[in-house]
Design goal:
By secondary structure, the protein is mainly beta. The chain contains one helix and 34 strands. It is globular, with a radius of gyration of 25 Å. This is Lactadherin isoform X2. Keywords: Cell adhesion, Disulfide bond, EGF-like domain, Membrane, Secreted, Signal. InterPro entries: EGF (IPR000742), FA58C (IPR000421), Galactose-bd-like_sf (IPR008979), Neuropilin_MCO_CoagFactor (IPR050633).
Length: about 450
């Protein structure tokens, strides 16, 4: 087979140098790869396609789109990538530059019409006060404590969301379940709807730990081509999931009724005064338009106020301070090495994570924070290697002040095994019940899918 000039150059520079080939990596008929992809044979004669820039998929058949395509910003906001900035925004790869009159992560808040839902503002003569922009996750209360807690971004898992009932339509084929009640969710079935026969419906989020919850953003949806939304609702909260209390009105004489939406797609922000300290949050529809249909997001922050990103995603921590027990090389080629400095949360590219050389519980990924820092949590993420989904499903954490003597993180007297990821891209956030002070932090994989593969961010201050 004749190689093109570009392919021959690739071979000469990357693939054909003596000693680089293992038992695999031979070229195959590149006509099997679309859009100019290079065909390579694996050890079992499996075909892999090395895709050119702008294409992805098993045979390079998918167009690679960045986080700004399509534009996630509403009201003609401008999407700007954040790879080269030090935002520390651990859940997005972009920021939205909002036009005058709009604010919020996605320019979704119309400042002149959406207000804090303090009782005085409900009168027609009250002077409106705009809702401030949500601030990056983990900011203390002094910065507003209005981080999105994970309904939209996925940090709140489906298993944490429950409801009193579910509407099932179209001959039983459409289930409007509580796990769909995420802000901006799209599709034909894209929200939670209560059953028509539920006289006292509710939807609940279990935050898994006590957090400070400062507000809620609600959104309706369109079902069967008709707008449905909550016009008014109540909010209850609990520490144990059994005994709930309702937020009271300003006079303390009864349950507070919050104003909801006026259409199927706009947002309504209601802030709680004072903020709640709770693990469970329930929304109780009081009056609904056509049906009790809801998408929403909770706003708040961690109780301790020390959970800012410590510098992996935003590159404040240099590559030299991220090390590992070993690194895997696809085709045994250094150019395709999954090195430790790539193990940064939301790292992009064809090779965009750390992967261990072997699947062994003796492998580890280590971060040198430079100085002793208080470490309060961790966010992990998997990745894909030529279409194969890989991630760490569970792990332990060790810490040290000198890089020699290590302490395994414990809870209740035993070493803690944290639940990790279940796919290649979602974030999994774990908060340490007992924060620790350390300079060095190691992640010790316990179980994994396909290969030990990891991207992460540490949280603290």
């Amino acid at each position: 087979m004749q190689l093109s000039g570009a392919l021959a150059a690739l071979c000469g520079v990357l693939l054909c140098a003596p000693g680089l080939f293992a038992a695999s990596g031979d070229f195959c008929d590149s006509s099997q790869c679309l859009n100019g992809g290079t065909c390579l044979l694996g050890q079992d004669n499996d075909i892999y396609c090395l895709c050119p820039e702008g294409f992805t998929g098993l045979v390079c058949n998918e167009t690679e789109k960045g986080p700004c395509s399509p534009n996630p910003c509403h009201h003609d906001g401008k999407c700007q990538l954040t790879e080269d900035t030090h935002r520390g925004d651990i859940f997005t790869q972009y920021i939205c530059q909002c036009p005058l009159g709009y604010s919020g992560t996605h320019c979704e808040i119309m400042n002149e019409t959406i207000y804090y839902n303090v009782e005085d503002y409900l009168s027609t003569t009250a002077i409106p006060t705009p809702v401030p922009n949500p601030v990056p996750d983990g900011c203390p209360l002094s910065a507003g404590c209005t981080s999105k807690l994970g309904m939209e971004g996925g940090a709140i898992a489906d298993s944490q969301i429950s409801a009193s009932s579910v509407y099932v339509g179209f001959m039983g084929l459409q289930r409007w379940g509580p796990e769909l009640a995420r802000l901006y969710r799209t599709g034909i079935v894209n929200a939670w709807t209560a059953s028509n026969y539920d006289s006292k419906p509710w939807i609940q989020v279990n935050l898994l730990r006590k957090m400070r919850v400062s507000g809620v953003m609600t959104q309706g949806a369109s079902r069967a081509g008709r707008a449905e939304y909550l016009k008014t609702f109540k909010v209850a909260y609990s520490l144990d999931g059994r005994k709930f209390e309702f937020i009271q009105d300003a006079s303390g004489s009864g349950d507070k009724e919050f104003l909801g939406n006026t259409d199927n797609n706009g947002l309504k922000v209601n802030m709680f005064s004072p903020a709640l300290e709770a693990q469970y949050i329930r929304l109780y529809p009081v009056s609904c338009y056509r049906g009790c249909t809801l998408r929403f997001e909770l706003l708040g922050c961690e109780l301790h106020g020390c959970s800012e990103p410590l510098g992996l995603k935003n590159n404040t921590i240099p590559d030299s301070q991220i090390t590992a027990s070993s690194s895997y090389k696809t085709w045994n080629l250094r150019a395709f090495g999954w090195y430790p400095h790539l193990g940064r949360l939301d790292m992009q590219g064809k090779i965009n994570a750390w992967t261990a050389q072997s699947n062994s519980n003796k492998e580890w990924l280590q971060v040198d924070l430079g100085t002793q820092r208080e470490v309060t949590g961790i966010i992990t993420q998997g990745a894909r290697d030529f279409g194969h989904i890989q991630y760490v499903a569970s792990y332990k954490v060790a810490h040290s002040n000198d890089g020699v003597q290590w302490t395994i993180y414990e809870e209740h007297g035993t070493s803690k095994v944290f639940h990790g990821n279940s796919d290649n891209n979602s974030h999994k956030k774990n908060i340490f019940e007992t924060p620790f002070t350390a300079r060095y932090v190691r992640v010790l994989p316990v179980s994994w899918h396909n290969r030990i593969t990891l991207r992460l961010e540490l949280l603290g201050c």
